[in-house]
Structures are given as C-alpha cells and as structure tokens.
Specification:
single chain, 130 residues, 2,3-Dihydroxybiphenyl 1,2-Dioxygenase, domain 1, 8 strands, 2 domains, 18% helix, four-stranded mixed sheet, alpha/beta
Amino acid sequence: MSSKFTELAIDCGDPDGLARFWCSVLDYEVQDEDADGTVTIGPPASPEGKTQLGPVPPVLTFARVPEGKTVKNRLHIDVNPTDREQDEEVRRLLDLGARHADVGQTGDESWVILADPEGNEFCVLSRRRP
C-alpha cells in the first residue's frame, strides 16, 4: 500500500482571490467553499456518465491565516504550458497578476520563476507536456 498525492494546502490572506488566480492558471474550478473561508479548487468535473482518463490531478486548498509570507517557499508548484510557448504563458500569467520573482537564479535556467499575487513562488517550465 502507498499514499496518493491528492491535495496541496496553501496558507494565504485572501483565499477567494488566490483561488481565482490559480483557477485561471490551471483551468480549475472552485469545488468547495467552507464557512471558515477555506476554498478548494480542482479540475472541472467530468460530464455525467463520462470518466476522466489518466490520473486525477491534486486539488489546491486555500486557507486564511493571519500572518503573511516571509521567506522563500520550501515547496512550490511547477506549471507546464500545454497549448503555447513558455514566453506566451509567462505573459498570460503576468496579466493574471503574477510577477517575476528572484530567488537567486543565475539566468541560465530553462524555467521562469514567478510569484502568485500573495508572493508564493512557482516555476513556468519550458517544455510543453500534454
């Protein structure tokens, strides 16, 4: 037996806003909103009677916390553009509210480091994967 990666929990100041950003990045939708303000997003539901092919991607859960982000993430998300080149995807994400982040990269990396609206770093990889 083993465990499956099903959920990534992200602490933040604005769960609704950050969930909307990541829904736009990943083409996810809101799946649940708790009374305490926690928002869970995931891939769109399959139409009635249809099954989803392949592995089910993990959901992201955004929970409100009082403190802000203070240091570089120890864990981060990598995204792969599936229908455009890396530079086009970076422009799209910047238009959604991401910003460039400097975590000590040399400039020789094949990925681009961005931060979401609350400062959480993530990478946009250069190779497209379906």
